[in-house]
Design a protein that fits this description.
Blueprint (H helix, E strand, L loop, with lengths): L7 H16 L4 H8 L3 H8 L7 H11 L3 H15 L8
Helix pairs in contact: 1-5, 2-3, 2-4
Length: 90
């Protein structure tokens, strides 16, 4: 699998979730428990490998203690930061 296989949006969302999780000092396992998700699933989301459903995003936001709107807003900001570093095909 190439480094850029996953979409920019999924990578931005995953990185945002990781940043927020680290900010509240949670391991993937502890965060997964709070969000009702398996730690392996959390890792896949953070790597941008998962196209998370709305229901999963609601669990993620609740587990992080943030509104879903904040998660989306910060993900959009992260996308803008990552875009210059991605190949032109994304």
């Amino acid at each position: 699998m190439t480094r850029w296989k996953h979409s920019l949006e999924h990578r931005a969302l995953g990185r945002t979730i990781r940043v927020l999780r680290v900010r509240v000092e949670l391991s993937q396992e502890a965060f997964g428990f709070r969000a009702g998700l398996h730690r392996n699933y959390v890792g896949a989301i953070e790597r941008g490998e998962i196209n998370a459903t709305f229901r999963v995003l609601m669990k993620v936001a609740a587990g992080l203690g943030v509104p879903l709107s904040q998660l989306i807003r910060e993900s959009e900001e992260m996308r803008r930061e990552l875009a210059p570093h991605m190949p032109s095909r994304y």
